[in-house]
Each structure stands twice: as C-alpha cells, then as structure tokens.
C-alpha cells in the first residue's frame, strides 16, 4: 500500500499515461495531491441560490461529481414533489420546534458553499430546531429518522447544544429520495457533542447535504459519517471555531459498491487560537464503476496560533473497476502552530495478511472478511452506540458476502 504524506506522490508507471492527480483505479497506487485549490470555491458562500452559477463539471468543487445523476438538484430543475417520513425521538428536557427561515438560529452555524446547499436553504418549508439546555447531560441519544418515500425533498435541521451540555445525536437516512439538506450544530462553550450520520439509502437515492458545526470555547464535537447506500451521496462536513480550546474529530466510514458515487468533502477552518482537529476517513470499494471521492481541506488562518491538526484518508480496493479520488489539502498562514499534517493511502488487500490467515486454516472468504473488519475496526469503535455498531458490522458482512 502506497502512502502520500505532505507531498504529491507521482504515478507515472501506468500504461497509457498517468491518471488525473488524486485519482486511483484498481491495481494502481494512491495519488494524493497537496493543493489549496479545493478551498477556493467558484463562488463565495451565500444563502441566495442566484449567487451560484449552474455547475458544468469543470469547476474545482464539481469536477468529480456526476452532475447528470443529481436529478436537477444542481441546476434548479428539481422541485419539491416528494415526501419523507421524519421522526424525532428526544429524551426528556430536549425541545423540538418547527421554525421559519427567519429564526436567528437557522443558518447561524454556516453559510451554503455550493448551489445545491443554497437551493436546499431557499426551498425548505420549515426548519427543525432541536435544543439541549445548558448543563444537561443526556443519557440517551437524540435520534432523527428520515425515510424517503420517493420524489425530491429539501430540509434544514439545527441542533442547539447549551453550554456544558453533553449529547449524542443520530440521523438515520433510509428509503428512496432525492434529498438536499443542511444540518447545523450550535455548540455552546464547554459542551460535548457526538453526531452520527448514517446514509443507508436505497440504491436509487440521491443525497446532498452540508453539515455545519460552530464549536464554542473549550467545546468538543465528534462527527461519525457512515455511508453505504444511495446512487449518489455528496456530503460536505464543515467545522469552524467560536472560541479558543475547541476540539473537533471527524470520522468517516464508507463502503462503495458497483455503480455508486460517494463523495465526502470536508473543510476545517482554524481561525481561533489553540484549537484542535483530527480527521480520519476510511473506505472500501468493490464492483465496476464504484467511485469514492474524499476531499479533506484544513485552513489555518494567520490568527490561529497554537493549532494542532491532522487528517488522514485510507481506501481499500476490493475488486477491479473501482476508482478512488483522494485529495488532502492543507493551507497554513502562520508558523506558530503545534502541528499540522495529512496522509492519503489506497491499496488492495495485503496478500501477506491473507496468506497468514489462510495458512492457519481460515478459508479465503472468511480471511477477506477479517481483514476488512480489522481495517474498519478503529472507526467502528468511535461510534459508541452498540445498536449502530452491530448494524454497521452486519452491513459490512452483507457487502462482503455479495462480492464472494
């Protein structure tokens, strides 16, 4: 397995010439580009969809995305003609409200950075605001279940976590839908939040979402993104800090099957001194046309002295015909930092690991399952919810069974 860390790794040994920078196909090693281009969007953030030109696929932020499969989310032709069954299960003390677009909490955590997110903001009817009072420690998670029942829907959800509160939040996506949404987190000083987003859509679903987290002073935010289903899934997690001492952990796990496009584009902006961030995303791919995209951007602004950040993406290619684009980006505007680094690696099964297990009497199919489970183990452990962990392991097993 080849790894690129802090510098581009050339790949000139491919027949027919090198692939595009940051692109990996089955049988090739990883190519990771160090560039700040991905942090430069074709239009500045805006709540107004008219401020974003219709993308054509040549823009940096859209060059990997199959626009023709977005069902009109990107060009304004998609209309809210669908339905989605939404259920919120909240422990005692948590309030759930439906509010209008003019509520001060809506959009406060972050501004849409592409046309789809702006379209979602301008198209939802009512936003859902889930509030956890200050100093409240929840013993049960807040669970939001979204089950698509066909057609196109737009949404906006705000989680407001009071100072020194602690909460676990789970959003579970299932069914069939064309879905564009924004999810905001307003995290008070000293609060601790774990957010788990599960994309377990039907194979025909399309899902684009921007996650915005505004992390308060000495607060902690942990995001765990799990993506399995859908025809096209394009997620945009973003973190900003509202005070010193904030910490963010962004974990992701994806299993990309034949024909699926799964894209995760992250941005952590360090504009406040003495904050930390850690990003770890891992993916497995199998089948013809499976395409995973991971863009990891970290921006350390001039005033963010004492920043400590690291990001890593690893991909395991299980069959021929799969493609990975992995691009870590790091932009540093001050030398007064604790540390900053990134890494990207893509490869096939380790033949030595398989040989070791098979030499001890373990059948090849079971050996493959053990290797994949070991590959994902550290991320599964970050979830902290036994029912979600068991479901995740079962999904991995089912995906591997299908490939045998």
From TrEMBL:
Organism of provenance: Streptomyces spongiicola
Family: Belongs to the iron-sulfur cluster assembly SufBD family.
Any GO BP: iron-sulfur cluster assembly
Annotated SUF system FeS cluster assembly SufBD core domain residues: 147-375
Compositionally biased region (Polar residues): 1-10
PANTHER family: PROTEIN ABCI7, CHLOROPLASTIC (PTHR43575)
Region (Disordered) location: 1-27
Protein name: Fe-S cluster assembly protein SufD
């Amino acid at each position: 397995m080849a790894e690129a860390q802090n510098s581009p790794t050339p790949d000139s040994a491919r027949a027919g010439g090198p692939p595009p920078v940051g692109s990996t196909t089955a049988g090739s090693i990883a190519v990771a580009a160090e560039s700040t281009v991905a942090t430069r969007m074709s239009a500045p953030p805006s709540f107004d969809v008219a401020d974003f030109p219709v993308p054509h696929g040549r823009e940096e932020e859209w060059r990997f995305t199959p626009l023709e499969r977005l069902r009109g989310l990107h060009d304004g032709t998609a209309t809210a003609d669908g339905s989605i069954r939404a259920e919120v299960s909240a422990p005692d003390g948590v309030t759930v409200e439906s509010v209008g677009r003019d509520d001060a909490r809506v959009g406060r955590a972050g501004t849409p950075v592409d046309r789809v997110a702006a379209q979602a903001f301008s198209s939802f009817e009512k936003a859902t605001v889930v509030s956890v009072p200050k100093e409240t420690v929840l013993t049960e998670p807040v669970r939001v279940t979204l089950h698509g029942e066909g057609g196109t829907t737009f949404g906006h959800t705000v989680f407001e976590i009071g100072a020194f509160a602690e909460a676990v939040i789970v959003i579970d996506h299932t069914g069939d839908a064309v879905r564009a949404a924004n999810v905001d987190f307003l995290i008070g000083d000293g609060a601790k939040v774990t957010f788990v987003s599960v994309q377990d859509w039907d194979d025909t679903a399309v899902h684009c979402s921007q996650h915005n987290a505004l992390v308060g002073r000495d607060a902690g935010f942990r995001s765990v993104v799990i993506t399995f289903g859908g025809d096209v899934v394009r997620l945009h997690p973003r973190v900003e800090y509202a005070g010193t001492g904030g910490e963010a952990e962004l974990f992701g796990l994806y299993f990309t099957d034949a024909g699926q496009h799964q894209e995760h584009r992250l941005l952590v902006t360090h504009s406040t001194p003495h904050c930390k961030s850690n990003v770890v995303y891992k993916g497995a791919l199998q089948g013809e046309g499976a395409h995973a995209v991971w863009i990891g951007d970290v921006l350390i602004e001039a005033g963010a002295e004492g920043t400590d950040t690291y990001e890593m993406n690893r991909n395991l290619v299980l069959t021929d015909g799969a493609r990975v684009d992995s691009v870590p980006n790091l932009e540093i505007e001050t030398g007064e930092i604790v540390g900053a680094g990134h890494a990207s690696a893509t490869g096939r099964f380790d033949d030595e690991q398989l040989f070791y297990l098979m030499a001890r009497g373990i059948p090849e199919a079971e050996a493959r399952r053990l290797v994949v489970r070991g590959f994902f183990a550290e991320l599964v452990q970050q979830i902290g919810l036994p029912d979600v962990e068991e479901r995740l392991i079962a999904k991995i097993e089912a995906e591997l069974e299908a490939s045998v």
